[in-house]
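Handout, tutorial session.
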Amino acid sequence: MFFLEDLPDFRTMKGFAKRFPEMEIDTTAACLRLLRVASHLIRNLENHFTGHGLSQARFLVLVVLERTSEKQLMPVEIARQLGISKKNTARVLSFMEEDKLVRRTCHETDGRASVVTITSKGADLLTAALPGYYRVLNRAMKPLDAKAKKLLIGLLDRVDPDDAERRMKTSRSAFS
């Protein structure tokens, strides 16, 4: 999270730029604003999740399970989709299993592996949390019209190197 509420003004940034030639004032200003906006959005989402007894990680585990046709995934796939370590995924899944939000069973063909399935309690909790989740997102984007949102998405796509790499792989596979 990014906790700097009072962003530096132009004069302050200009002083830093003199001391640190790597600093580009416009780049730094844009990144600081992006970090602050993202942090506010994450804080609002975390407040919402807390009201449902969830964390961001638990919520996202439920989302990735719910959006699969079988409502189940291997832990390694959950870790990959969330971009977190296998160790952290295992910890989150253990707590979720204790709370009966997910169930782990042995993989049907690989006895060393397990499969995680969303339970009805987990699905119900996700169903209860999603409307408020969407309200938080809608409130964050309310100042923008559809054209501005499309522009924002395009700009963010251009500065997200991981997303650009994923898009390249997707477009390459579409032509294969």
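The second record follows below. Compare its token runs with those of the first.
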Amino acid sequence: MIATVVDTKALWETVVAAFVAGVGTTFVFSIAILGASRLAEANRQGRSGEAAFFAVVAIVGLLATAAAVVAAVLVMTTK
């Protein structure tokens, strides 16, 4: 009886998708934080090449995080 009321397959898919999106977005944002902190450290130590690399890492992390947020909003508004 309960199986007809609750679509367990759809519920499981939602739980897995939410977990993947949450962990993925958190991971990508942590890459942006890593890039920013290493950028500041490299700047203080005068290593411009390393600082440029970590600036790119921080920017890519921020862009990926923004893309994940936009994708999430689009998915929520189209359902």
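Points raised in discussion: Residues 8 and 56 are 43 Å apart (CA to CA).
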